[in-house]
Amino acid sequence: MNGLFRLGSESETYFTRRRGEAEKNGVRILIAEDEPHLSRQLASALTDAGYAVDCALDGERADFLGATESYDAVVLDLGLPKMDGLTILRRWRDAGLSMPVLVLTARDSWHEKVRGIDGGADDYVAKPFQMEEVLARLRALIRRASGQVSPELRAGAVVLDPRNARVTRDGVVVKLTSHEFRVLSYLMHHRGRVVPQSELTEHIYAQDFDRDSNTVEVFIARLRRKLGASFIETVRGLGYRIEADR
Ligand code: CA
Question: Residue 192 C-alpha to ligand 1 middle, in angstroms?
Fold first, then answer.
């Protein structure tokens, strides 16, 4: 299954691409784009960048996934079949969903950009775009959404750089597996807060992954061995926390 496109069981218009080794950012993204080739290109680039990626090829599917799953950011094409992007965006914002949304607009369509921003989009990229620009804008949106100014995440002696998926402790590079990295990245993005195990599980796997919450404990144990026993605190019955001001 790794590295392959997989058709979802309920609809052929939905697929998820995952590549285990690349899933390391602890960040989950929904791509809503009806043009299959472009959708695949985006999914491929975002997966390679270390994100867990779900794809919706029509507006109804996008609307449903955005409203029922937890995403750290959405790439939303405005021209979608069944339900257009602006309608979806308004429905999400009306429902109080605040995840960052990067809108894809037609080239030179300034009124689309204006309507997108008015409709609650956080940023936009005009088609055709350079993939690097989409990646850079997504990184900035995700960073801002988690209250970060610097791209590097710091907690005590540990520094995580999402640009190259690198973790150091006292300046020494720490080798992590993809899932260890994803767990650490999510906790670092939300440091100071107690993150329930269920939330962690939800954010480190793509939708079609066989989620096993027990494995989170295994990843936490391994991270403690590599980063120090007290680095990740267990708040009994509630979840895990990395202190904000270490
Ligand atoms: Ca379209």
Answer: 40
- Locate 124 and state its tokens: 């936009």
Q: How far is the CA of 76 from the centre of ligand 1 (A)?
A: 9
Q: Cα torsion at 7, 13, 18, 23 (round to 10°)?
A: -150
142 alpha carbon to ligand 1 midpoint, in Å? Answer: 24
Predicted TM-score of the model (pTM): 0.60
Q: Give how far Cα 130 sits from Cα of 3, 41, 104, 127, Å.
A: 23, 11, 12, 9
Considering the domain 153-241, what is its CATH architecture? Orthogonal Bundle (1.10)
Region(s) of the chain under CATH 1.10.10.10: 153-241
Interatomic CA distance for residues 179 and 158, integer angstroms: 17
| Ligand 1 center to 18 CA (angstroms) | 23
Class of domain 10-145: alpha beta
Encode pLDDT of 68-96 as tens digits: 998 999 999 999 999 999 999 999 988 88
pLDDT tens-place string over residues 3-20: 333 333 333 223 333 333
| Contact yes or no for 59/73 (Cβ under 8 A) | no
- Which part of the chain is CATH 3.40.50.2300? 10-145
pLDDT of residue 158 exceeding 50, the answer is yes
Q: Where are the beta strands (DSSP E) in 45-134?
A: 52-56, 73-77, 101-105, 123-126
